Each structure stands twice: as structure tokens, then as C-alpha cells.
């Protein structure tokens, strides 16, 4: 693996480790990945979950059922194809997802307050570019 890739990964994991929110909910990594998928990809159903996390349709369905029971997702119908069931993330699900995947905004603000404007702009630009390119990989 490219040493630059390893270095960027190390920077990311260090940043997340030090700046993430304290985890309140008992939620599995699989559940977080499913919530991310539903949040980022409109029209997600059980087939998409199954493919995304590499499990059988039945297993994906059971995961979705447990997440729905927690109130993080709701079932709906695809407006373009009423036969297809799609999942939508609830406001509670968005809060849980944010706390389990995002940086703590207060901690991040403390770090950013230590930087000058050029450093802040450089970080923002670099993360924006990385985000845009990552979206093209999907």
C-alpha cells in the first residue's frame, strides 16, 4: 500500500479517535453502516443493504427490522414503483448516525480556534476536494 495512503488513514483515524462524540447508544457497526447507506443513498431497500454490507437478503431484512424497532428507520413505498419497499431515516436515526460517525463539533471548534485563517481554509479545501472525489468512487 502506498505510504501516502497509510499516512492519510493514520491522520483520519487519529482525528476521529480524539474528536468523536462519546457513544451513548448500544448500536452495532452494521447498524451504523446501514443508517449511513439509507441516509446517503435515496431509495434504499433491503436488496441494497444486502449488497452494501455483504449479507444475505434475510440477514439484511433482520438488521433493518431491528433498526426500525429502535425508531431509527421507517418503511415506505417507492413513489416510482409502489411495489418496492424503501427505508427512510428518522430524525432520531439522523441524531444517532451523527453521534456515531461525526466529529464532536465542540471539540472540533476548539481545534479550529487554534488555527489561523489560512490553515482553516486549507483544511476545508482539502476535505471538500476529498469528499467530492470520494463521491465519484461510488
UniProtKB/TrEMBL annotation:
InterPro entries, per the entry: HTH_MarR-typ, MarR/SlyA-like, Transc_reg_Sar_Rot_HTH, WH-like_DNA-bd_sf, WH_DNA-bd_sf
- What GO molecular function annotations does the UniProt record carry, in alphabetical order? DNA binding
Name all HTH marR-type domain ranges.
1-132
Q: Which SUPFAM superfamilies match?
A: Winged helix' DNA-binding domain
User: From which domain of life does this come?
Assistant: Bacteria
Keyword annotations: DNA-binding, Transcription, Transcription regulation
Which SMART domains does the UniProt record give?
HTH_MARR
The protein in question is named DNA-binding MarR family transcriptional regulator
Species this protein is from: Sporosarcina psychrophila
Amino acid at each position: 500500500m502506498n505510504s501516502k495512503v497509510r499516512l492519510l488513514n493514520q491522520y483520519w483515524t487519529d482525528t476521529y479517535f480524539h474528536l468523536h462524540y462519546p457513544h451513548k447508544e448500544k448500536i452495532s457497526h452494521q447498524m451504523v453502516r446501514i443508517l449511513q447507506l439509507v441516509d446517503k443513498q435515496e431509495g434504499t431497500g433491503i436488496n441494497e443493504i444486502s449488497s452494501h454490507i455483504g449479507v444475505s437478503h434475510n440477514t439484511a431484512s433482520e438488521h433493518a427490522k431491528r433498526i426500525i424497532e429502535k425508531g431509527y428507520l421507517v418503511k415506505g413505498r417507492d413513489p416510482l414503483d409502489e411495489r418496492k419497499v424503501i427505508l427512510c431515516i428518522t430524525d432520531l436515526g439522523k441524531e444517532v448516525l451523527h453521534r456515531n460517525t461525526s466529529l464532536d463539533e465542540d471539540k472540533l471548534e476548539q481545534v479550529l480556534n487554534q488555527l489561523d485563517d489560512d490553515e482553516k481554509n486549507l483544511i476545508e479545501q482539502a476535505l471538500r476536494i476529498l469528499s467530492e472525489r470520494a463521491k465519484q468512487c461510488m
